[in-house]
Amino acid sequence: MTNASLLRCSDGNQTPEDVRVDDENHDAVTANEANIGRQNQQEPFIGNEKQPSRVEVQWDKDDPGDPHNWKFAYKCFITFQLSLLALAPSFGSSVISPASQVIAQYIHVNEEVAVLNVSLYVLGFAVGPLIWAPLSEVWGRKISMLPALFCLGIFSIGTAVSKNASSVFITRFFGGVFGSAPISNVSAALGDIWSREARGTAVSLYAVMVTGGPTLGPVVGAALTAELSWRWTEYVEAIFVFAVWAFTFAFFPEVYGPVLLKQKAQRLRKETGNKAYYHPHEDLKLDFESIITKQLSRPVLMLTTEPMVICIAFYASFVYGVLYMTLQVFPIVFEDVHHLNTILASCSFLGLFIGVVFALSINIGNQPRYIRAVRASGGKPVPEARLPPMAIGGIIFTVGLFWFGWTGGYRSVNIAAPLVATILIGAGFNCIFQQCINFLIDTYGLYAASATAANTFLRSLMACGLPLAARPMFKAIGVGPGVSVLGGVAALALPVPFLFMKYGLRLRKKSRFAPID
C-alpha cells in the first residue's frame, strides 16, 4: 500500500487509486525535490493583485511526520497493535464452532444448518471490505477500523443473548461485516509504515494472527462451551474485542500518508494564515460511483480477465476454504472416530497453529533472496521472487491432506498420525496464503487494492461454502475419500508457482493492470 507521494492534481475527481503511486517512489524522493518544495512554500504568491498559487504539501527529507521515518521500536509497537486488530475478528470466526451442536438443539435446527453461525460470519468478510477499503483510503486507517471493531463487540453480545435462529445468524453475519474492517485494512496499514524490503517480515507476522485466530478459536470455544455455556463463546469474544479496541484507541496513531499530509496542510494554513497550502487528498470524496467503479467493477474485471489474479485468487481461496472446512472435519475425526471429548478433540487445532508458526521460518527465510532480487532490479518489485515459499508450501499442504485423509478415518491408526498431518496442513496453508497476497501486491502496484479485493471476495465465498458442504460430504463418502478429493485439487494446483516463475514476467507485460516499465 502506498502512502507518501501523490500525483499533483486537484480537479476534485480523483479516487484513491488514481492518486496513489507505489511506495518505491516514496523512497526515491531526493533532497533536491524536498528543497524545491520548501522554496515554493516560502513565497506562494507575490503582492495582492495576483491570485495565490496552490502549494502542494509533501514530506520533506527525513520528515518526522512521515510514518516511514518513525523509530523502529515505535513501528514494532504499531505492528503489534495491528496484529491484535487482525486477531480479534479472526478469532471470533471460529470460537463459536465447537458449540454448533448445542446451538442446533437450542434454536431447533439440524447441525448442517447450525454451521451457518460460522459461514455467515465469513460471508461478512466478503461484503465488508467493499465498505471499509474505500473508507480507509479517504478517511484513514484508524477511523476505518476502530469504530467497526467496536460494532463487532456489540454484535457479539447480540449473538450471546439471542434466543432464536434468526437472531443468531443475523448478528453473526453483521459481526463478520464489521469484523472484516481490520482483516481487510491491516495489511495496507503495515505497508504505510514499513519499506518494501521490511514489509515481507511484518506481513508474515500479521498473517500468523489472521490464520492463527481460526485455529485457536475452537480450543477456547470448546472449553467455554463445556464448562460454562455456548453464550460465553461470544461474551469472551466481546470482552477480547473491547479490550483490543480500548488499547488501540489509546495508542494507535493514524498511519495513512495522504491523510497525514492533508492534516499537515491544514496545520500549515492555520499556523501561517496562508490559504495556498493544500494537499490533493483534501479533494477526495467517497461516493457511490467510486465504490461501484473502483471497489466492484475493477476487482470483478481482474478476476475474470487477468490470468495471474484468477490462478492466485483461486489457489489462495481454496486453501483458505480448507482451513475453515477443518472446523467441521476435525470433530468428525477426533470425536466420532477416535471418541475424544469435545475439549480434547479441539486441541487438534493446535497442530494447525504450530504449522502456521513453523511456516514463518520458510516465509521469512525467503526475505534475503527477495531483497537481493529487488536491489538487482533497481528497487522495483519482483513478484516471481515471492514464489519459492509458495511452491514449498504447496507440496507440504498436499502431503498433509493425503496424510490426514489416509490416517484420520481409521481408529486402528494411532491418533498421532493425523495430528502430525495437521501440522503439515497448517504450515503449507500459511506458506501458500501469505505469498499469494505478497505476489498480488507486488504485481499490480497501483491496482493492488483491486487485486486483493478480488482475492478477499473469492476466498470469503469459498470459506463460507466449503464448511456447509463438509459434514454431508464426509458423512456420505467417508473421511479418507473426502480429504483425498481435497488433496487431489491441491495436487493439481502444484504447478501454479512454477508456471508463474517461468511465465510471470511475460504475463505482466501483456497485462493492462500490471505494466512493465
Protein model, in words:
- The chain is mostly helical and 517 residues long.
- Among the domains are: 16-63 and 256-283, no CATH class; 294-510, MFS general substrate transporter like domains (Growth Hormone, Chain: A), CATH 1.20.1250.20.
- It has helices at 16-19, 23-27, 31-42, 72-94, 100-107, 111-114, 116-127, 129-139, 141-160, 165-193, 196-227, 231-251, 257-272, 288-305, 307-337, 342-346, 349-365, 367-376, 387-408, 416-444, 448-477, 479-492, 495-510, and strands spanning 55-56, 277-278.
- It has a two-stranded parallel ribbon.
- Residues 1-51 have low confidence and may be disordered.
Write the topology of this structure.
Blueprint: H1 16-19, H2 23-27, H3 31-42, E1 55-56, H4 72-94, H5 100-107, H6 111-114, H7 116-127, H8 129-139, H9 141-160, H10 165-193, H11 196-227, H12 231-251, H13 257-272, E2 277-278, H14 288-305, H15 307-337, H16 342-346, H17 349-365, H18 367-376, H19 387-408, H20 416-444, H21 448-477, H22 479-492, H23 495-510
Parallel strand pairs: 1-2
From the N-terminal CA to the C-terminal CA, the straight-line distance is 19 Å
Helix and strand content put the structural class at mainly alpha
**SSE ordering:** HHHEHHHHHHHHHHEHHHHHHHHHH
Average pLDDT over all residues: 82
* CATH architecture type of the domain at 294-510: Up-down Bundle
**CATH homologous superfamily assignment of the domain at 294-510:** MFS general substrate transporter like domains
C-alpha Rg (nearest Å): 24 Å
Dominant shape: globular
Q: What profile does the largest beta sheet have?
A: 2 strands, parallel
Which range best describes the helical content: under 10%, 10-25%, 25-40%, 40-55%, 55-70% or over 70%?
Answer: over 70%
Helix segment count? Answer: 23
CATH class of the domain at 294-510: Mainly Alpha
Stated plainly, the CATH topology of the domain at 294-510 is called Growth Hormone, Chain: A
Q: Catalogue the unreliable spans.
A: 1-51
Walk across the major sheet and give the strand order. 1-2
**What is the strand content?**
under 5%
Count of DSSP strands: 2
